[in-house]
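Input chain follows. Return structure tokens only.
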Amino acid sequence: MDLFYHRLRLRADPTRVVVRPFHIAWNATNGQGQNRGRRMIEEVLGLSPEAAAEQLEGVLKDFEARHWQTQRVFMTRYNEIAGQYGLDDAHITDQRKYLIGAYFCHEYSYAAAALMNPSVVPHYDQSGMPKGSMRVLMSLRSVGEGHISSIAFREGIVTTRNQLKLAPEPPFATAADTIGIDEDTPPVGPVTVYRHRDSNLSGTVIFPITEAQSKGLEDLRLVHFRHGPDDVEWLGTYTAYNGARIQSELMRTRDFRAFDLVPMTGSAARNKGIALFPRKVGDVYMAIGRQDGENLYLLKTDDLTHWEEGELILAPEYPWEFVQIGNCGPPIELDEGWLLLTHGVGAMRKYSIGAALLDKDDPSKVLGRTVAPILAAAEHDREGYVPNVVYTCGAVKIGDKLFMPYGIADSSVGFAFVDIAELLALM
């Protein structure tokens, strides 16, 4: 089938940086038996007024133009450190507070290595949209130093005439943050992170917080979920990775200001790629999962955060998916049924994207599937960090078409428009 490819590409960008807390075991002791963090604070407090002013001037010259309200960030960080070390700051000048805060921060380029594996949902603000247009919100997997993955966002407008206009990124990016977390003891359970009050969503990044997430938040699959006619929530399943183990987790938000990051439980949460249906089906929550790493299963539960074994519904059948298949995001509701985008892995570990149609009332029934891929790695879409991969974590229906952002070679993001009627005709 013919897809319309938008010319826009999103790529890794090392200039996109945020200020983050600097962690090097500050509570540890050095060879002289001194607490490292307290020693550094005492060093700053021991500087002469002139030397402290000179050091702060140098820091601000290097970094103030690169970050949003840099001095406020330094003061916020100082307040965290003062609480942690029990500092009596009545006689500490603001100048030294800024400088202490700066020593406990560092600059992190969150998308220096790669930008990939997007998902997309209707934006929470559709005001002013003309007929045939939709304001959309995309999540992106951004990869920085140490190959640590975080969640970034982009907003834009899409029309049924294959037009895409992304909102400009703000000059400054900010990290979503927690409240009251002991940074030397990462939490192990659910956490809530908050968007910076002065930052828009396109400038917000969600970094790993818990021990289970420490090496990455991977492949968020966003879904616009309707609990009822007037009860809407944005949910997203993703993979938390700590360098040795993976687990599925759930992101929940109603306003994209506060984000709950909740570990999922049950045997189905042991693998990657759970994708939620956008509403209950038959009074139960449903999802598509791949517990065995090879086939697709229909999962059912009464609890959004607990998922047990499911029913096998799709197995590799065609050469382009002989190695394994998986979902490419949440099922999309059509009059004809549930449209499920899939990915298949074939010879030479080449990834391709296909689709299946599930019965609307009983999604365990597969009504049809594409014999050949609708999108495969070819020509300019083959080269990158991981070659021969195209992959999406979700598309959105706009009129009679799908708008599908997709990752290219684990390195960049492209955009395609798919005619739904043509796609269904292939099944």
